[in-house]
Specification:
The chain is 58% helix and 9% strand. The chain has 23 helices and 8 strands. It has helices spanning 3-14, 24-40, 45-61, 70-86, 113-128, 142-155, 168-181, 199-212, 227-239, 257-266, 287-295, 298-310, 313-324, 331-343, 346-353, 355-358, 362-365, 370-381, 385-389, 396-406, 410-429, 435-440, 442-445, and strands at residues 101-107, 132-136, 158-160, 186-190, 216-222, 244-248, 270-274, 282-284. It has an 8-stranded mixed sheet, with helices on both faces. Strand 7 and strand 8 (282-284) form a beta hairpin. It is elongated. The structure holds guanosine-5'-diphosphate and magnesium ion. Magnesium ion is lined by residues 113-114, 138, 144.
Length: 453
């Protein structure tokens, strides 16, 4: 799902590093590459243009957040805009009405309507404990009614058997009557496939809609039809008041264009996506998750959020400026770093989120842990102010006192000081300060062998 788009977009991001502030010039080529990726994914041109205009304007006008690198900021902007264009948040079905909640499924032949009725029935029964009745008004293909009957059985929902020689409107009304009498929570109505260009059939669906007044009118749309899916949705929406879209066969659609374009162009939210033929292959559509998936950087994105939310901005600024001024990086600064690191979920949380580090062997990873970090904090806290600023004065008796105060051994203090010296040397090499470098050097900071007992 979204494999190609995800591969090409995350590739764009992998290749942007060290751009400094975001400016018209230095984002131009990135925007161009994103444009190509989106067009190749069959995202509608209108949507591509809108998306890029928004990304550009946001990238140039956003307030600089000192906690993030320009690349991280840019990634965040792209992600936000992707989410917004797909509809911001998951839209659920409106179940807060007097039952039975009538859900009408419409769409073209083969879009996945009947399959989706089964899936939705199972979903609502399992997740919301609803009592569900399904019926089919697809009298044009004898096998269609039978198909739903079987699917309903598999989904564990009830089926109202319609006789093919009855009028479509009457079947729909009878089913609704039945749902009322038997106190069903939900009535799912499957319909025959129709072309949006077929006037007679479009009138028929209008009449059905009028007769049973559904709370939800869901357009079932095949993602594989790409741009066409968007046009079909638009036409259906002019005839019927749709309340949402079920985008099917997203599992087979390697491009993903429909998922991105649909909601913006039709003004209708995608409520569910079908991701397979089996009746459990239905997912509520979460723009946020899809955007992360497309960017192929779910973990990095959550890391960015963690840094944004949890890092003490004032402290981060202080660290940055102390480094910029070329001040010696002392143990007080280090203590600040350690505390900031803990704020964003600690090393263990961080390791999980950084793809590079996540791939390291277990024995290496096990050496970087929050316990050893906490121990470092305690050792620094056992030092006097003078010792923190001038660690070189820490000799024999001071070491013994610090070890005693921190509940560690002199050997630990030694090892810690050695490590700190290495880090200080590393910090001197840092040109620009701030969280950016802190993140970049995190790997070195918690490198193999770093402070273990
Ligand atoms: P309808 O004519 O709209 O009722 O379409 P059907 O429900 O009969 O589905 C048509 C075909 O699409 C069937 O072979 C389904 O198994 C298949 N199908 C439906 N939804 C999905 C989906 O989400 N993923 C995949 N891979 N196949 C699907
Ligand atoms: Mg069908």
């Amino acid at each position: 799902m979204f494999d190609n788009l995800s591969a090409s977009i995350s590739n764009v991001f992998r290749n942007i590093t060290g751009r400094g502030r975001l400016t018209v010039d230095n984002i131009k080529d990135i925007l161009q590459k994103i444009r190509i990726s989106l067009l190749e994914a069959d995202v509608s041109l209108i949507v591509v243009n809108e998306l890029l205009a928004r990304i550009k304007s946001n990238a140039l006008n956003h307030a600089v957040n000192n906690n993030l690198t320009p690349e991280q900021e840019f990634l965040k902007i792209v992600k936000n805009e992707l989410v917004l264009i797909m509809g911001e948040k998951n839209c659920t079905l409106n179940l807060q009405v007097v039952p039975p909640v009538v859900i009408l499924m419409v769409g073209q032949q083969g879009a996945g309507k009947t399959t989706s009725v089964g899936k939705l029935g199972k979903f609502l029964r399992e997740k919301y404990s609803k009592k569900i009745l399904a019926t089919s008004v697809d009298i044009y293909r004898p096998a269609a009614i039978q198909q739903l009957k079987i699917l309903a059985e598999q989904a564990g929902i009830d089926f109202y058997s319609s006789e093919p020689n009855k009028k479509v409107i009457n079947i729909a009304k009878d089913a609704l009557q039945q749902a009322k009498i038997k106190f069903y929570d939900v009535l799912l109505v499957d319909t025959a496939g129709r072309l949006h260009t077929d006037d007679v059939m479009m009138q028929e669906i209008k009449q059905i809609h009028l007769a049973i007044q559904p709370i939800e009118t869901l357009l079932v749309s095949d993602a594989m039809t790409g741009q066409d899916a968007v046009n079909i949705a638009k036409s259906f929406n002019t005839v019927l008041p749709l309340t949402g879209i079920v985008l099917t066969k997203v599992d087979s659609d390697t491009r993903g264009g429909a998922a991105l374009s649909m909601s913006y162009i039709t003004g209708q939210p995608i409520k569910f996506i079908g991701i397979g033929e089996k009746n459990e292959a239905l997912e509520p559509f979460h723009p946020d998750r899809i955007a992360s998936r497309i960017l192929g950087m779910g973990d990095i994105l959550s890391l960015i959020e963690a840094i944004e939310n949890k890092v003490d901005r004032e402290k981060a600024k202080k660290i940055a400026s102390s480094l910029k001024k070329g001040n010696n990086f002392n143990l007080n600064d280090f203590l600040d770093h350690l505390q900031q690191l803990r704020n964003i979920g600690g090393v263990n949380g961080l390791i999980e989120k950084l793809p590079g580090i996540g791939g390291l062997p277990e024995n290496v990873k096990s050496q970087m842990n929050d316990i050893s970090l906490k121990r470092m904090e305690v050792i620094i806290e056992s030092m006097t102010e003078l010792e923190r600023i001038h660690p070189e004065i820490i000799k024999g008796s001071r070491k013994r006192r610090i070890a005693l105060g921190s509940g560690t051994l002199v050997k630990d203090v030694n090892q810690f000081l050695k490590q700190f010296n290495e880090m200080q040397a590393m910090m001197k090499k840092i040109q620009k300060g701030g969280m950016k470098n802190m993140m970049r050097n995190m790997k070195d900071l918690i490198s193999p062998g770093a402070f273990t007992r």
